Amino acid sequence: MAKEKEFYWRRLHSLLGLIPVGLFLVFHLLVNFQATKGVEAFNEAAGLVEKMPFLLVLEWVVIYIPLMFHAFYGVYIAFTAKSNLKRFGTTRNWFFMLQRLSGIFLVIFIAWHIWQTRLQKTLADAEVNYDMMADIVSNPAMLAFYIVGIIAATFHLSNGIWSFLVSWGITQSKQSQKVATWVTMIFFVLLSVVGVMAILAFV
Amino acid sequence: MAKSKLLVVGGGLAGLMTTMKAAEMGTEVELFSLVPVKRSHSVCAQGGMNGAVNTKGEGDSPWIHFDDTVYGGDFLANQPPVKAMCEAAPGIIHLLDRMGVMFNRTPEGLLDFRRFGGTMHHRTAFAGATTGQQLLYALDEQVRKWEVEGLVTKFEGWEFLGLILDEQGVCKGIKAQDLATHEIRAFRGDAVVMATGGPGIIFGKSTNSMINTGSAASIVYQQGAKYANGEMIQIHPTAIPGDDKLRLMSESARGEGGRIWTYKDGKPWYFLEEKYPAYGNLVPRDVATREIFDVCINQKLGINGENVVYLDLSHKDPHELDIKLGGIIEIYQKFVGDDPHKVPMKIFPAVHYSMGGLYVDYDQHTTIPGCFAAGECDYSQHGGNRLGANSLLSAIYGGTVAGPNAVNYIKGLDKHVEDLPSKIYDDAVREEQAKWNEVISMDKGNENAYLLHKELGELMTNNVTVVRYNKQLQETLEKLAEFKERWNNINVNDTAKWSNQGIQFTRQLRNMLALANVITKGALLRDESRGAHYKPEFPERDDENFLKTTIAEFTPSFDPIITYEEVDCSMIKPRKRDYTGGAH
Amino acid sequence: MAEQKTITVKVKRQDSPEASTRWEEFEVPYRPNMNVISVLMKIRENPVTTSGKKTTPVAWDMNCLEEVCGACSMVINGRPRQSCSALVDQLQQPLTIEPMSTFPIIRDLQVDRSRMFDSLKKVKAWVPIDGTYDLGEGPRLPERKREWAYELSKCMTCGVCLESCPNVNSGSSFMGPAPLSQVRLFNTHPTGAMVKDERLNAIMGDGGLANCGNSQNCVQACPKGIPLTTSIASLNRAATVQMFKNFFGSDHMVD
């Protein structure tokens, strides 16, 4: 990596986590949520996405490239940290570690998820629809894997928003950082409910 | 011709100021310090720094500051350098302010000043109650800038082992040792400035930091430099008694309205205010110390029968206390556990500062050509007693004098050290290496260096501090001679050749013994009472016989040769020192 | 005579940077109001372990003993702190004492913190003055701003914040919270601010500001109560602005 450019890479990492990756996550979970309204509703919503023009370009520019950068640089960041939870058991230190653990887990989970639902489709020319997901989560282990994956993602995003606010210098005071913690954690709970309800709708 | 080089030993205020001044004049400086310079003992100074800036409409002036200082020092200081210091003081305060020291301000954004002992004026600039720390940091930062610019090289974690003198006895460098690797090296220098601080650790527990053994100054004294007024040891009236250290409770506590009292007949007795109505709690330190000592030791009126009295701030506004005295309030809270906002602090006098030190002329030049001294390790500014908040001033002022004078001295040399043959340097390293090997192999004896030091501290504290009797001083000298023999019987317990602190300490202990002799013999021979030196057998000041600087010269037996030198009183005629009345 | 109360203390020792580590246990006579330094002092007066084995005195750094010099940082009962202000009565026993592992170990509890001083060079932690000549008064400063800046100026480079930071370790080049907070201090001083862009650009380099992972341990650990995390967040904002200035090319870098 170019010398003395670390600052910009880090800021890019922080930005991409929110836009577009974070936004996509929210969008994705909302589409999935359609499944709670029945098979038809989900297939329609998913179909709409499928029908978008320049889908391949959009997928790469808006999702894969930013996601891969965020993921790989994030793994690098995670592995430069040395946990000291035993000495400092504060909330923020826990969140710091959870952010890194969830990030690493998400790299595995998302890789698997993309393989299972996108690449296989391209290779085997299978269709992405309700049945496909229902098939996957009919395996209880797979269902658990997905639930953990969804919660990891919603936590990583919510806490990532908190970090974003600090890293870009928006929340400076103790007070504003505290409020941001509450707001992002409420967001985490809400988004998790949406995500988990959606996945359970496939069972 | 090679570029000239100045060596500065010690990285406190005096050493850093010397370094800055020399670097500013384009001279390369090598700076040596036992600890990273930011950890020097100057950080412990609390209350502030004096300078007659006269912002309170009190008609203060450098002359009055000069008069207060000379009077406070009981006329033992040569007056020309004191006058020069007091005249430079306002400029030094503004300089430090420009460097970014966070001095407390008035509502208008100007420097604020508070009162200190021995004066009627608000003359002390302060940064909370950690002024020394703040000043040291400012100079540390400036020197770091010079380091980046390449004119200053720091050797932190190196111990000074001695000057290197040529055949004519002129100083041409120093011997020093890396404290981790124990590598001994000779450093060439056209001139050397000693800025190595005070010797408080000779008294065991004091308000001083652990590196203040006086060892470096003692080495220079042992190499032939004269040592002056060694017996003038300031005992600070207010320190917190402790197991490892007697922590200073700044005079600024009284400057901001703190009151000293104890119980007498069941009622609070403000004994300083009663006896000294004009100065009250702000009498000079030697006076306050003797009164507290008398109340506790002679009258047995210490709190709960212990040797402590109250220093009371509990009547003051808590918020104002935090802003003006935050640092010391925190220290008391952390180390004692009581809250000075609410309860009075328990304090007792403790060894604090040495007015005496290496003899220097008005250029800060010691009696060894090419070796200068500045700061607490020189004797020049405070006479028989130092006024509070004059030490930061004298340390920095000493640097502003020593630096340029050392550079000018170098300019006058016809030959630079880089052009000298390497023989004296090689010999110096060999000699020190042999001494080191000797100490490191001291593993047969049964004395523990730290316990021997403890005994030394108790001996000195009991006999050579607040009240001095000739009989006890004589006995102390005999004991010191015994200690010198016992030193040979030390077992270092550790023969590691890597970061061996015990060996360093053992070596320092010997140097402490040499200075302890100077302090004690100077006290024994001065048959009068002056400033911090008080003998009940001779309660009056005796100008006829002792308005003189004590000068000690080293002999291998450690028993110094003492001579006297007239004091320059050409500006202010000596008068009786008496704080019971009004302005003097 | 009543039996003398004692304190048990375990010290992690290491003879040299390359040597292996070992734990040694000592028993030290108790005295009221004792701090960890006086425990270590007792050990060096009689360097014998609990099991009666003669050993070397423990090596450690100390100087002022009143928490202003920053020398005596070590990890006591798992917490990095100043050992002078660590009072035995407030600590659980047996005491465990270790060196700060973030820094290279010299011997026993002594560590090499020179990287912190190097960082101060890198970030230009000083007020640039023209010289030490008498150039008159310094700039005026509102007292309330002074009170705030004073808190930042108390940093003693003790290294406790670096030790507490999960992102400062041998695998990363992060300079840690202490030097960053100094940048904030000097960038607010009227004269110091004249080169504030240079300091910001310095901390926007490798090992700088962006390495902070917001675990916020530093502010918990700082013995001087310096608002380190607020400093970092504030610098983050300044760096954001500086980043845009640098890129879009504002022609006045200092205002």
Automatic annotation (TrEMBL), chain A:
Stretches that traverse the bilayer: 12-31, 61-81, 93-115, 143-167, 179-202
Q: Does the keyword Magnesium apply?
A: no
Q: Name one GO cellular component term.
A: membrane
**Annotated heme binding sites:** H28, H70, H113, H156
Q: Where in the cell is it found?
A: Membrane
Please give the Gene Ontology molecular function terms for this protein. Answer: metal ion binding
Q: What is this protein called?
A: Succinate dehydrogenase
From TrEMBL, chain B:
Recorded hits in Pfam families, A to Z, give:
FAD_binding_2, Succ_DH_flav_C
Where does this one sit in the cell? Cell membrane
Which residue range or ranges hold the FAD-dependent oxidoreductase 2 FAD-binding domain? 6-392
Give GO terms: molecular function aspect only: electron transfer activity; flavin adenine dinucleotide binding; steroid dehydrogenase activity, acting on the CH-CH group of donors; succinate dehydrogenase (quinone) activity
Top-level lineage group:
Bacteria
Q: Which reaction does it catalyse?
A: a quinone + succinate = fumarate + a quinol
Q: What is its main location?
A: membrane
- Cite the Fumarate reductase/succinate dehydrogenase flavoprotein-like C-terminal domain residue spans from the record: 453-579
Keywords assigned: Cell membrane, Electron transport, FAD, Flavoprotein, Membrane, Oxidoreductase, Signal, Transport
Active-site annotation: R285 (proton acceptor)
Catalytic EC class: oxidoreductase
Q: What's a GO biological-process term for it?
A: anaerobic respiration
A cellular-component GO term for this protein: plasma membrane
This chain's protein is named succinate dehydrogenase
The primary gene name is: sdhA
TrEMBL record, chain C:
Q: What is the protein's name according to its record?
A: succinate dehydrogenase
Q: Name one GO biological process term.
A: respiratory electron transport chain
Entry keyword annotation includes Nucleotidyltransferase: no
State the Pfam families in the record: Fer2_3, Fer4_8
* GO MF assignments: 2 iron, 2 sulfur cluster binding; 3 iron, 4 sulfur cluster binding; 4 iron, 4 sulfur cluster binding; electron transfer activity; metal ion binding; succinate dehydrogenase (quinone) activity
Which family does the record claim for this protein?
A: Belongs to the succinate dehydrogenase/fumarate reductase iron-sulfur protein family.
Q: Could you tell me which InterPro entries the record lists for this protein?
A: 2Fe-2S_ferredoxin-like_sf, 4Fe4S_Fe-S-bd, 4Fe4S_Fe_S_CS, Beta-grasp_dom_sf, Helical_ferredxn, SDH/FRD_Iron-Sulfur, Succ_DH/fum_Rdtase_Fe-S, Succ_DH/fum_Rdtase_N
Top-level enzyme category:
oxidoreductase
Keyword 4Fe-4S among UniProt keywords: yes
Which PANTHER family would you find in this protein's record?
Answer: SUCCINATE DEHYDROGENASE [UBIQUINONE] IRON-SULFUR SUBUNIT, MITOCHONDRIAL, SUCCINATE DEHYDROGENASE IRON-SULFUR PROTEIN
Alphabetical UniProt keywords: 2Fe-2S, 3Fe-4S, 4Fe-4S, Iron, Iron-sulfur, Metal-binding, Oxidoreductase, Tricarboxylic acid cycle
State the NCBIfam families in the record: dhsB (TIGR00384), PRK08640.1 (NF006391)
Cofactor(s) in the UniProt record = [4Fe-4S] cluster; [3Fe-4S] cluster; [2Fe-2S] cluster
Chain ranges of the 4Fe-4S ferredoxin-type domain:
146-166
This protein's species is Candidatus Kurthia intestinigallinarum
EC number, as in UniProt: 1.3.5.1
Originating gene: sdhB
